[in-house]
Amino acid sequence: MDPVAAKFIGAGLAAIGMGAAAIGVGLIFGNFLSGALRNPTASDAQFGRAFIGAALAEGLGIFAFLVAILLLFVK
């Protein structure tokens, strides 16, 4: 296999993490909204935790993007 082709395949596999992060953020806020609609009095206490979870998921997505960019552009 050509090393350039392997580099592109590796970057594509690393980019899957960005999609997984988007799915994770959707699940976090979807479950938060479901819980907030069931118990509106507890939603204020859980709102900060939802943002912390979303920030961690987005951080993993940005890390996957960084790995993909490094695989593509670093010799």
From TrEMBL:
<feature type="domain" description="V-ATPase proteolipid subunit C-like">
    <location>
        <begin position="9"/>
        <end position="71"/>
    </location>
</feature>
<keyword id="KW-0406">Ion transport</keyword>
<comment type="similarity">
    <text>Belongs to the ATPase C chain family.</text>
</comment>
<dbReference type="GO" id="GO:0008289">
    <property type="term" value="F:lipid binding"/>
</dbReference>
<dbReference type="GO" id="GO:0033177">
    <property type="term" value="C:proton-transporting two-sector ATPase complex, proton-transporting domain"/>
</dbReference>
<comment type="function">
    <text>Key component of the F(0) channel; it plays a direct role in translocation across the membrane. A homomeric c-ring of between 10-14 subunits forms the central stalk rotor element with the F(1) delta and epsilon subunits.</text>
</comment>
<keyword id="KW-0375">Hydrogen ion transport</keyword>
<keyword id="KW-1133">Transmembrane helix</keyword>
<keyword id="KW-0446">Lipid-binding</keyword>
<feature type="site" description="Reversibly protonated during proton transport">
    <location>
        <position position="58"/>
    </location>
</feature>
<feature type="transmembrane region" description="Helical">
    <location>
        <begin position="50"/>
        <end position="74"/>
    </location>
</feature>
<dbReference type="InterPro" id="IPR000454">
    <property type="entry name" value="ATP_synth_F0_csu"/>
</dbReference>
<comment type="function">
    <text>F(1)F(0) ATP synthase produces ATP from ADP in the presence of a proton or sodium gradient. F-type ATPases consist of two structural domains, F(1) containing the extramembraneous catalytic core and F(0) containing the membrane proton channel, linked together by a central stalk and a peripheral stalk. During catalysis, ATP synthesis in the catalytic domain of F(1) is coupled via a rotary mechanism of the central stalk subunits to proton translocation.</text>
</comment>
<dbReference type="Pfam" id="PF00137">
    <property type="entry name" value="ATP-synt_C"/>
</dbReference>
<keyword id="KW-1003">Cell membrane</keyword>
<dbReference type="InterPro" id="IPR035921">
    <property type="entry name" value="F/V-ATP_Csub_sf"/>
</dbReference>
<dbReference type="GO" id="GO:0005886">
    <property type="term" value="C:plasma membrane"/>
</dbReference>
<protein>
    <recommendedName>
        <fullName>ATP synthase subunit c</fullName>
    </recommendedName>
</protein>
<dbReference type="GO" id="GO:0045259">
    <property type="term" value="C:proton-transporting ATP synthase complex"/>
</dbReference>
<feature type="transmembrane region" description="Helical">
    <location>
        <begin position="12"/>
        <end position="30"/>
    </location>
</feature>
<keyword id="KW-0813">Transport</keyword>
<keyword id="KW-0066">ATP synthesis</keyword>
<keyword id="KW-0138">CF(0)</keyword>
<dbReference type="InterPro" id="IPR038662">
    <property type="entry name" value="ATP_synth_F0_csu_sf"/>
</dbReference>
<keyword id="KW-0472">Membrane</keyword>
<dbReference type="InterPro" id="IPR002379">
    <property type="entry name" value="ATPase_proteolipid_c-like_dom"/>
</dbReference>
<dbReference type="GO" id="GO:0046933">
    <property type="term" value="F:proton-transporting ATP synthase activity, rotational mechanism"/>
</dbReference>
<keyword id="KW-0812">Transmembrane</keyword>
